[in-house]
Amino acid sequence: MISANDLSRSELAALLAFHAEAGVEWLLEDEPVDRLAEFEAMRTRRAQSRAVPQTSATAVEPQHFAPPAGPSRERRPAPPASPPVVAIPDEQAIKEAQFVADAARSLGELRTAMEAFAGCNLRNSARNLVFAEGSAASGVMIIGPMPYADDDRDGRPFAGRHGEMLDRMLSGIGLSREDVLLANAVPWRPPGNRVPSAREADICRPFIERQIALAEPKQLLLLGNFTARFFFGGETIHQLRGEWRELTFGGTSIPALATLHPQDLAAAPINKRFAWLDLLAFKSRLG
Fold first, then answer.
1. Residue 80: is its pLDDT beyond 60?
2. What is the rounded CA–CA span in Å between residue 121 and residue 99?
3. CA dist., res. 227 & res. 95, Å (int)
4. Is-contact 200 121, C-beta < 8 A?
5. Distances in Å between the alpha carbon of 164 and those of 130, 151, 263?
6. Which range, 55-59, 159-163, 233-237, has the best average confidence (pLDDT)?
7. Which of 112, 118, 160, 286 has the largest CB neighbor count within 10 A?
8. What SS3 state is found at 223?
9. Taking a C-beta distance cutoff of 8 angstroms, is the pair 178, 142 a contact?
10. Are the beta carbons of 177 and 163 closer than 8 angstroms?
C-alpha cells in the first residue's frame, strides 16, 4: 500500500480532491484498531467477572465491565451527548416547507428561514445552505440541479470547475455571473453527489419556487437533466432541451429554456454543440 509520505504535494491534493468529490467527510484514525481483539478481550473480562463469587449483597461490579445485553439483564442507557434529531414525516415536512416559503417576503427573509428549516434530511449532511446569488436586474435566472462538492464547501452556487465552465458559456452570449441570478433546485448537497430522491425534491420545491417568485425573472435557463425534469416533468434533458416552455410562479408566467449542465459538457464534449444552439436561442429571446 502506498504511504502518504511517498506522494508529492500535488498528488496529495489530487487525492484529497478525489475523496471530497466522492463524498468522503470523515478521516480514519491514525493507528489501526483491531476490533476483533477488543471483542475477545471483552469476552474474557465478562467470563472472569462471572467466575468471581459475590461475598456480600453489596458487592459492586467492576467499573470497567460492560454488562451484557439480554432479557435477564437491564442495560442502563447512556445519556445522549446531544439532543436527537427528530424525523419529520414527509408530508408534514412538505407542508412546513410550503408554509415557511410562503411567509417570506424577500429573498433575505427566505434565506434566513431556510437556514433554520430542519425538515429535510439533506440539511444534516451538507456543510452549507447554497442559496440564490447574483443580480436579478437583468431579468435572467439560471437554475442548476443541486450543489456539488465545491458549492457545498464555499456556500455558493456554481463554484469550482462547473462554475468556470458556466462562466465561459455565459460569456459566449454576452453575459457574466454578475449579470444573472444563480440558484439550485435543491439547496443542500446530497451525500456523494447522488441524485436527490423524489421526497427530498418535493420538500425543497417550495423553496426554489419562492426564490423565483420573489426574484421575478423575465427568463429562466434550466441546466441539466434533474432540473429539466424537476420543472417540466417526464422526459430526459435531450428530449426537453432547446424548447421554450411557460412556467407559472406566484401567478406570473415565465418562459423557460432547458439545456445541458456544465458537467454534461465535461463528461461528453459532443454535448457542447447542443448547448451552444440552446444558448443562441436563449440569447435571441433576450434580444
1. no
2. 18
3. 22
4. yes
5. 17, 12, 11
6. 159-163
7. 160
8. strand
9. no
10. yes
| Residue 107 domain-assigned (yes or no) | yes
- Per-residue confidence (pLDDT) for residue 261, from 0 to 100: 96
pLDDT in tens, 125-157: 999 999 999 998 889 999 999 999 999 999 999
Query: What's the domain count of the chain?
Result: 1
CATH number, domain of 135, equals 3.40.470.10
Q: How big is the chain, counted in residues?
A: 287
Contact 166, 266 (CB under 8 A): no
Q: Which domain holds residue 260?
A: 90-286
Specify if 237 maps to a domain: yes
Paired residues of 222 in beta bridges:
143, 258
Residue 203: inside a domain: yes
What single-letter DSSP state applies at residue 121? Answer: T
Could you tell me if residue 56 is inside a domain? no
pLDDT digits (tens, 9 = 90+) for 170-185: 999 999 999 999 999 9
> pTM surpassing 0.85?
no
Question: Residue 79 pLDDT more than 80?
Answer: no
Q: CB count, 10 Å around CB of 88?
A: 17
